[in-house]
Design goal:
Length: 159
């Protein structure tokens, strides 16, 4: 059962906005350490350049919001669970930045990102079953966080 058309655009804005807010919380709380502490850490040779993160995350926030919006629009018995998982993973997404950059605790952040990754995979399966396009839109986020998990683990190991 689809949601009324009049609520679709505000819902889309809300889902994307929630992702942006989660990202902003993590970024705002940690910006100084990104500039001062992070450059001092040993990183693997495959660490991406700093300029890449903003466009990647902006794209991911849009894709995440559209993916969960499609699930919401499709409705059905799985939609409420997918919404809870979506907002739950946003919490762990924001918490990662606070742990890694804000508290300067890459090992704690690694534990967080492993939980986040599990939630993302769970959502990936649920979205794919619920709406194939939503699942396809979610996949880049899972892949990026998979890469970020490996990067986080490498930084823990090197430092």
């Amino acid at each position: 059962m689809s949601s009324p058309h009049s609520r679709r655009i505000p819902a889309l804005i809300g889902f994307i906005g929630a992702a942006v807010v989660a990202g902003a919380i993590g970024s705002w709380a940690t910006l100084e350490n990104v500039r001062t502490w992070f450059p001092l850490l040993q990183k693997p040779a495959w660490n991406p350049p700093a300029w890449l993160f903003a466009p990647v995350w902006t794209t991911l926030y849009l894709l995440m919001g559209v993916a969960i919006w499609r699930a919401w629009c499709a409705g059905g018995p799985a939609a409420p669970r997918l919404m809870r998982l979506y907002f739950g993973q946003l919490f762990f997404n924001a918490l990662w930045s606070v742990l890694f950059f804000g508290l300067k605790q890459p090992a704690w952040a690694l534990a967080d990102i492993l939980v986040l990754w599990g939630l993302l995979v769970w959502l990936q399966v649920g979205l794919w079953r619920h709406d194939r396009l939503a699942g396809a839109l979610w996949l880049p986020y899972v892949l990026w966080v998979s890469f970020a998990t490996a990067l986080n683990a490498a930084i823990v190991r090197l430092n």
